[in-house]
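Good morning C.,

I know you're traveling, so I'll keep this short. The sequence:
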Amino acid sequence: MKLLFFDKLTLETRLSVYEVHQRLQHYVLKRDNLFNSFVTQEPQHIFEGRYSDESFLIRRIINYRNHFLPMLEGNYELTGNRTRMKIKMRLPKLLYLIFPLIIIILTGIFYQITSKSEVGVGPEMYISLAMPLLFYLIVFGFFRYEVKRAQKLLIRIFEAEEMTRSL
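The tokens, ready to paste straight into the viewer:
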């Protein structure tokens, strides 16, 4: 089971590189700054981000808040008569810095709250370790949910087949 906030995906499609780029133009709202989401989008836009002739950095457009929405970074190239897309799905880089701090702070807070007794290591110590673990699992669940949704959308948009999927 993958317990990291990172995933790789390889898709193959019968579309040409030009057609893949045309689909990106159609479905991706071009934005250089992914933190500014107040620009209105057309109904056909499913993703937002930036793309070039052979690569892209996008994320899904959602109508709710989810700070753990994966960034999809990929490139595509012609292999024979098919186009192969290699996609990395990860959290925004800032969250890799903030997330360990949140875990450490939560562990400290729960340990201070639950360790009022002077008996030694007791059940309160296990509770103080379980709460940050629960937080991690909840965040991981949201991330995995969004990865699966983005995957299905990419497969549908590019009429692709999933080749490999790994860490």
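Safe travels,
E.
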